UniProtKB/TrEMBL annotation:
SUPFAM superfamilies: Thioredoxin-like. Residues 10-96 form the GST N-terminal domain. It comes from the Eukaryota. It comes from Coleophoma cylindrospora. This is GST N-terminal domain-containing protein. The lineage of its organism: Eukaryota, Fungi, Dikarya, Ascomycota, Pezizomycotina. Pfam families: GST_C_7, GST_N_2. InterPro entries: Glutathione_S-Trfase_N (IPR004045), GST_UstS-like_C (IPR054416), Thioredoxin-like_sf (IPR036249).
Amino acid sequence: MTTPEPQVRFYDLSGPEPWSPACWCTRYALNYKGIPYTVTKLSYPDIRPTCERLFADMTGLHATVPIIEILGDKLQALNDSTPIARLLNEKFPASEGYRDLKGLDVMDDYQRKSVPCRKAILSWILADVHDCALDPHDGSKEYFKRTREERFKVPLSEVTEKVGGGEEAVLQQIREGWEPLRQRMMQEDGTGDPTYQDFFDASNVKWIEAASPEKGKKLMELYGDDTFVKLMKKVEKYT
Ligand SMILES: N[C@@H](CCC(=O)N[C@@H](CS)C(=O)NCC(=O)O)C(=O)O
């Protein structure tokens, strides 16, 4: 059997295992669509120079990962996970044998409404991301600590308390913020075909689990039901 020629170069963040939620969205999208790709790991300090190399005009563009480069005849680079998913559907259509990512039409609204929940997650696990998820040797840790402490104005270890109001308060914000997921999963048994909305939610679960397996377990108990078990079962094949 021959290995299929890569069609996409996917730039992910470095670290002992994949952890960035936005990059997980792109990984799920590529896997679901069945697009052959290669992964290039970037340190935090390498993100901006890579964007500057790939994008002729940086006006209005945030220097972030994920970034994809579509290779060959379709050559094109793009960052930002949801626009990436839309571009992948356009460039790798069902008519050419690729699976179509579903549910992208609701994403702008869903993503906007998920901001408070994502902020709560961030204040819960920020220090764990620094301690456990980042590559310890490539400058990512120093970059992350400096930029996040500038943003939050407290040491990383105090963000949950001083920014989030303590773990209980943060968990309550996550519980309320993720209610639409709980409602959705109540209609499901975890065996259906995942939508991009499912991949987006699962990416946040992956983020928490990679930062702290202990907090990942706490998350599973958040509603005292099988919301997260069903979600992760639904996306498992594309992990
Ligand atoms: N809306 C963007 C967010 C991407 C994002 O924030 N990526 C982070 C890593 S998870 C990043 O690249 N940060 C660069 C930095 O902090 O300098 C997306 O979904 O792609």
